[in-house]
Amino acid sequence: MLQQVSILIESNRLQEAKSLCERLSKNNKKNPEVWLLMADINNRLGALKDAKLNYKKAIKLKPNHSLAHARLGMLFHSQEIYSKAEQSYQFSLKLDNQQPAIHYNLGVVYQELGKLDKAETEYRQAIQGRPNYVKALANLAYVLRQHGNLDESLEHYQQAIRLEPEIAELHYNIGLTLLQLGDAEKAEKHQQESIRIDPEYSDGWFGLAAVHYFNGNSSQACLDYQKSLKINPQNIDALCGYAAALSELGKHEEALQKIDAALKAEPDNFEALIQQAVIFGALGETDAALDCCDKVFKVSPDNEQAASVVANMHEIRGDAQRAFDYIEPFLNNDKPSISVGLCYSTIAEKIGRVDDATHYLHNMLLQKNTNTNDACKIHFALGRIYDKAGDYAKAFTHYKMGNDLVQPHFSISHFRESLNREMQVFSNGFTKDMPTSTEQSGRPIFIVGMPRSGTSLVEQIIASHSTVFGAGELMQITRLSETLPGRLNTNLKYPECLSVTNERTMTDLSHAYLDHISELNSGAKHVTDKLPGNYMNLGLIQQLFPNSKIIHCNRNPFDTCLSCYFQNFSRNIPWSYQLADLGQVYNEYTRMMEHWKNVLDIPIMNVNYESLTTNQEETTRDILQFLNLEWEDQCLEFHKNKRLVWTASYNQVRNAMYKKSVERWKNYEVYIEPLITTISNN
Predict the structure, then answer these.
(1) CATH 1.25.40.10 is the classification of domain 304-404
(2) Residues 6+ positions from 458 with CB-CB distance below 8 Å
(3) Interatomic CA distance for residues 141 and 159, integer angstroms
(4) Spelled out in words, what is the top-level CATH class assigned to the domain 440-680?
(5) What pTM was computed for the model?
(6) How far apart are CA 645 and CA 658, in angstroms?
């Protein structure tokens, strides 16, 4: 009869099996095998309460029934009652230790409970009893990866994948392990394989994105993150990774949207909170960044990543010692941290620990799992350290290595063509035909020029005036220009769409810009916008704000370009990573500014960086006079202004005027021949 019940169960004829078993139980109330079968039937029928009672009945009748204890453990396991599942599995194994599946199940329970050491032991026991146990091999590999035993983890993943080569999840996990080992090429192949096996595998697209981000290709990473999230919008890892890639590209507001989605799903997710803090920091919202880290510290007081973010916030605020206090506990960890190392390199000189910070960074480069993005940042940090020490050969070596690791997509012909289109639309006499905004506000002050030409310094001087608010680098003009085709309902792109614009649309754009700067500050008479690249938008600016004023910053071309080359712009400025590209872009910039001088009516003042550093007061008076601002002594003491500056020049504006950056290029003359030749032959 018991055999007949078993046959019915195997045939999935569960109701028949249950009826037969109930009849058997009336005459066999003390037979534990009957109650075990009844429990299995109820379990499969979803009558879990009855199944639990049946398993316990079987155990009561036969306390040493290892299978009954195991099955009860499985029931608790399925209900995520891990503590009771653990007890049942342990009791079953105490009675019979030769059960690979139960060792595996107990390992899974320990893994869920965060007891990874115990999980590792159970997985090894399972594999000992069944050497080709793929699930146990894969889970052991995962636990080993969490412990940092990457080589052994890889061995077990490879053994599992040889046994089951068509499991997408295995390829995904082996890909992650290879990436941690620094082998991005093999990692990419496995992630591609996971997607081949299952094109709708969200984690596979996430893994592929992680490879592209590792290689420094944030744009492609974003595309892969999009595919991952299209399949699974709640993939927290993908949301956080997408946010990091967007932030690398300078798209901080969009990155925050992804983090908001992650935190909506998991409000206490550490990775999301820390990434949110990093983005807030990039946006200059230090208090918000610190609040994010406080949420992490409440649960994880020794969180290294959060400590690094807080340290960076204090460094930006000028408190190097407090920044060091946050990272010091982590400096002696076995594995150097990129976030700790970069912060350390920034504050090292101020706290007298340059040699130690340099050693720390070099040690990081020796780690075989240091990714391309991190290696790039380390080389730039070492470049800064050696430059300050006067070791220009080592400095340039590291700057070049950092730049060469970046592979941005840049075409000088496309760049030149975009400027040609601007010049064609904004040609001589364009104001006669092109509608102008009726807005007469002179509130905005636009500061333009090449990056690293003194725009931050000039803004800090002007923003030290009591009637001026320094808004920093605003993307609004560019964003408004991008909306024009849609506003005008035309297929013409910007700037060609200006041929069909009208006075109302231009006025609406002006109001949209003014509304934005009012949100930043509603009281100041003037607001500065110091986005250097607005030199390409001066024609549009004139049509939107005919009463505004432009300050054009210029500097020695070799100093300007070398300073760009020494600054890691995180691919926001794709032409800054090769000296020849820098020279060609500089030549195009000078051509553009010469064009504006010939066609614009709006007042433009040229401020030369070298003149400003040599004749500070005279040049400052000229600037204020040009802006129709009364003289105020605090404009000479701009370094005492406590406003936060988030560009690469934040250190300069916190100090009194200095000249050490003038003709800095001569220290590197022997290394920058492509730049010198390109500019000199223009």
Answers:
(1) yes
(2) 447, 530, 551, 553, 607, 612, 623
(3) 10
(4) alpha beta
(5) 0.69
(6) 18
